[in-house]
Structure formats: structure tokens, C-alpha cells
Amino acid sequence: MTDAINTLTLPNGLRLTLRHAPHLKRAAAALRVHAGSHDAPARWPGIAHFLEHLLFLGTARFPLEDGLMRHVQAFGGQVNASTRERTTDFFFEVPVSALGSALERLCQMLAEPDLSLARQHREREVIHAEFIAWSRNAEAQRQFRLLQCVSPHHPLSGFHAGNRYSLALQDPAFQRALGDFHARFYRGGQIHLSLCGPQTLMQLEALGRQFGSLFSAGEMQAQTPPAPLLDNPLIELEASRGGLDLLFAHEHLPPGAEQALDLLQACLNDSRPGGWLDALRQRGWLQEVHSDSLYAFAGQLLWHIRLQLQPDAPPAEVRALLHGWFGALRRLDAAALNNEFERLQHSRKQAASALELARRDSAQRPFEALDAQALKAFKALLDDLPSGEQGQWQQPHDEPLLIADLPVGCAALPDDLTVSDILPVERGFATLYLRWRIASPLRQRFHAVLSQALQPLLERARRASLQLDFSLIGEHWQLRCAGMPGAVIRTLDLALEHLRHPAPHLLHTPAPAEPAHIPIRALLKALPDHLREATIQPQPACLLDLTVLGQIWASAPRHGLAIGFAGAAQAALGAVLAHAPGLPEAPPPASQPLPARRWLHHPTGGSEHALLLFCPVPAHDEGAGRVLAQALQGPVYQRLRVELQLGYAVFSAFRQIEGQGGLLFGVQSPQATPGQILEHLLSLLADGVTFDPAAVRALAAQFEEPAMANAEVAEWAWQTYLATEPTDLSHLRRSILRTDQPILDNLVKRLLDAEHGWLCLATSEAPDARFEQILSV
């Protein structure tokens, strides 16, 4: 089934793009305002970002407790916003039935905001907390230093996020500037709204016209042209600690330059033989690579390649190879490159969510091949890049991971693989989980080797919109692959070959340095390991050997789950799994309950405080646990972020982790210690919640397979499988609908009593004596 698209302009000037995508389960809206931080008065840096925040705080018609964020969360959707240099984006994804009510709230809050001074004071502190976190984040500061390479006359070199000092709320001139910015840019002609979902074009158009008309009329205003990006030729940045940043700046590119860069990056990120990445790996120089666009506006383009190299890699030769590859690209047939790109874009479109499609449409960058104008921009972009002759290059053959048909093969599935039919075959989405229990104390060192062996395939899979990861969780190695069934089977075949036979030189290649995470993300990454603890064993001081790896694989108990495979797909999967390493076994018991209350210190390297509180809920209480988590979302956000202003990273939700379901609370704060955060959370939990029958019915509806994203269905099935307590979605819905006020009150009491344990994972040691009684009951 193909998508149907229509674009029109409303009488008030608003541009409306509609996408009927019948294969989608959810609907989404993306609204782009053509104004960003560089369009604000230079005297008031941060005013655009500040306004974006203020718009979410509710209006007279939809106060905060019934505003867009709470409304979307109540339907299990997602919502966010982003202020860039020349655009501000607002976007959400919800069940199909909620598109109209969410769109009304979005348009109304943007068209008729409440900019009262009291709200401004509260939200300025949130902006300041973000500023502090940004100023302490190494990755953010590295990118800021990159932007200092452009001309000091260009706004990119300045500061535009805002903080307590740049947002002068008491100055009448600031208040006039804030109101003028909204009046000038938040009107019809400056807005592009895209709607995407399985609804008909007529239904989408009716919603777009009804709520898009809330904006005042006005033609699109030309945004002020920027100063030149460069005053002098762009300097080459020095490598530091194996990290090499390559920066590229362009002026006066023709329209279509952003799409042209998409094609260039698709070629750049191709890990197959014949390209630049393969050339670096063949020389043993490359650990990791990332490329991204930093800025695009009015013919200007600034983009960046970030390399993590081995210590002996010569940066000058790395650059020379890249210049040689650029030169080879110029000589290749652009039409042939575009044909491959078209297949790649088709794969991305098939895998994209409603939200991703809507955001692409609002940015006028759909998942399509380059048109004639963008091909001209591609040529201009290549002509503007440095060129050389170094290296031997070839155009790769067709990517097999883009082939949708099933591979040839026929064999029975192994006994250790459980097959789930929770996803109908017509969804065209399959997921395979394989897990091995590795008793060897060398599991961590060999995992690093195998991760490097898989790295080129991981890059190819990501490029082809397949989900592939190989993780270390406690004593287990876990492989997951998801996407269209034929592509999953082909990817799995290649992955298993790399896992069985990694290149020998990788045994002695240093593992890439772990990228720095902000504290709350570092805690989230570590949480599964602490819920399924590995036995701590001394690390043998020995050289790694492929013979030892073979012995580990030969004795590794294996089990797994296949979702979305049927008939011929199961036969083809069986042929691939016949060569999977390991010994078949039944899945082990689920994680044991946590022992009472535990406080674990997990250093993160960040300067801010962070805490995760995980409160397990027994499987038979999952429905009530999800109702309680939903009821707490709003109060937790309101108390900790809005009223107490502890920080901008505040969340609460029901999560399944390593087969264990429970309530997860997370806070990152520049000033509140983990102990103080815990005290606030427990106080809020002690207040209890009020049962809301309508919210419970809406929650139950979220757990019908047609309403859930395919990846969410697969992950729920995997977590249920790990829990070793067979259940299905209908059982969960009934459990949710049986919940009432007494059940909620009882669950709150049991959580406060830590009847099933707690886990506090924090950036500091256990709190002081005030909390000894809480933590020792």
C-alpha cells in the first residue's frame, strides 16, 4: 500500500501537508514555525527558546492539567518541541482517535498563549537549569567549540539558548520583544503543519482546516539573511585523544542542498567494501564515526564528521583518504547513486513512525530520492568539497539488506526458540531476540571484541532502517534484530557469522572509549545490569584467543523469542539459526525480587545530581501498576519540575526491565541531592492518587495490538517472556480495567513499605542519617 499526499494553503496563509499512510497504527502532527533563535533580537538571546517553553504551560481554554503534554501522555503518546537557528518545531504522536483533541490543544496553545509574568519567572529557572547542564556537558561544549570556527559575525558563533541573566523579565523592552516575536512569527503564513496517519486525506484535511484556522492571517515574512559563514578559509581542526573533527562549510548552494547532503551522508555512512569507512577499517584506523548537519539556511550549509580513531591513526592520511573519496564520488554516475538512495529512502519510509513521517513532511524533506533540483545541488555540493586522488575506490554492489523478499532456505526452528504470534504477519515487521548465558569471566572482554566485529554491520543495518544491537546484560550476551522479515533474516545470517568468526586482529584492538552520557542517561543505561546482577569474577590476565571464544560459544546456554515470522519466513529463519552458536536451553527464571531497599552508587562523571527509583510490581499487579504510573505522571512533573524546579529532567513511568515490571522515577538536578530527590518522591507517593475511570479506560485501550507501535508490541512480548509468566495483551487490559480506588491505595501502601523491594540508583553514596530509617526498614 502506498501513501497518498496532498498539500494546500489555508486562507490565513498556513501551509498544510497531509499524508494518508494506511499501514500506520498511530497518527501524528508536526508544526514548524519558520523562526528560530537567530530571528530573535540580538539584545535578548534565548527569547525564541524561552517562548517555546512558555507555550507548554497551559492556556485559559486548556490549563496545564488538561494541556497538550498531559493530554498526549494520557493516551500513551509522545510530545516534544525543538528550537533551532531558523525554525521551531512542535510535534506529537497519539492513537488515531486522539489526533483531533491533541491538535486542538497544540494549535490553541501556540495561537493564544498565556505569557503572564509569574509563568515566565518559573520557566526561566527551568531554562537556567538546562543552561547549567549544557555548560557542564562535555559533548555540548565540544559542539559549541566547533561553531566557534565560523565567522564571529555569523550568529552561529553566539549563545542563543538563554539563561537567568539573558532573559531580563523585569525590563519592559524584553516583554515587548517577547510579545512582538510571537505576534510576528506565530501566524498563518509562517507555519507549516503536517498531519500523518491512516485516516483518509479528507479526514486529515478537515482537522487541519478546523484547527489550523486558529492562527491569525499573515503572509510569510522573509527571515533576515545571515552574514557569511566564514571570513577566511576554514581551518583544519587538530585531533585530540584519538578524536578527529572534520568540518565543512558551504555558501551560495542552490535549493535542495539539505536533500543533497542526505544523499552524501548516505554514501559516507556506507560500510561496505569500496568506500571510505572500509578503507579506514582495512588500515586498522577506525573505531567509530558519526556525521550530522549542524546548520542549513539560505544556501549556507555547515556539516561535520566526528571520528574516533585508533591511537596510531595518522589524521593527515585520514583526511587525504576522505578527499580522495570525494574526488571519486564526483566521477561516479549521480543517477546511479540516486537510484540506490531511492531504495534506501523507501526502506526508511516503510520503517518510519507516523511522527517521523510528519516531521519530515513539515521540514519538506520526505523519504524520497533527489529530484532534478536537488541533484543539481548535489553536484554543487561535491564541487565545493576538497578533492584528491588518494585511495582505490569502487561503487558498492546493491545492498542485500534492502531486499524485502525472503532468502532461500528451509529448516525447522530450534527447540530453544519460542515463537510468538502477537504481531500479525500483515504488519510486515519481525523481531528476533537471542540470548546466551556466558559463564566465563572473559565475557566482558570478548563482548568488546564481538561488538567491534559487528560494527560495520550495525552501521549498514542502521542505514537500512533495521534495528540491530548486541548487548551485555549481567551474565548474558543478547542479540536483537528487527525490521522487515526478509531483511532481518539476511542481517541475522551476517551477524551470526561475525559473532562466530571475528577478525583475529580485533582480539588485540583497543575497544572504543565509552561515550559520555549526561548523569540521568548513564543511570538508565546501567539499570538493567543492577536488576540482573552478574557474578563478580576476577579477570584473568591472559591474551584473548579465538580457540577460547569457540569454547565459550560451545558451552553457552541459548534461548530466544521470534515475533512476526510465519510460514516460509520461519523456514528461512530456521536455516539461518541452524548455524547459531550455543546450546539450546529453556529460559531461566525471571529476576528475583529485590532484597528490601537498596541504594547503589553509580558514578557518572557528570557534575549534576541524578537518581533513579525503581519500585517493582508483581506480574499479577501489572494492570494496577500501570494505572498508578499514569496517575502519577502529571503530579510528579508538576511538583518536581514546575513547583520545586528541581531540574528539567523529570519523569515517571511504568517500565519492564529484564522481565521485571515496576514504577520508575527519574530526576536530574543541578542543586537537589539524590537524598533530597528521594524525599520529594516519597512524599509525593504518600499523597496517593485519585482514581479516574475515564483515564483507566483510555489506558486499557492503549494495549490493543492495533494501537501499539510494532516495536512496542515486540518489546512487551520479550519482557513478558523473560518474566516466565505467560500472559497476553487481553489479560493486561482486563487487569487494568479491574483497578479501582481501593486497589490503587493498597498498591501505594505496599510500594511505600517496599514489600517487593526498591532500587535507588544514584550519582552519590547513600544519604545521611535522616534516611537511615527509610532505607533500613
TrEMBL record:
Peptidase M16 C-terminal domain: residues covered: 178-344
Keyword Protease: yes
Pathway listed: Cofactor biosynthesis; pyrroloquinoline quinone biosynthesis
Keyword terms: Hydrolase, Metal-binding, Metalloprotease, PQQ biosynthesis, Protease, Zinc
GO molecular function: hydrolase activity
Pfam families, per database record: Peptidase_M16, Peptidase_M16_C, PqqF-like_C_4, PqqF_C_3
PROSITE patterns assigned to the protein according to its UniProt record, in alphabetical order: INSULINASE (PS00143)
Record-stated family: Belongs to the peptidase M16 family.
Name this protein carries in UniProt: Coenzyme PQQ synthesis protein F
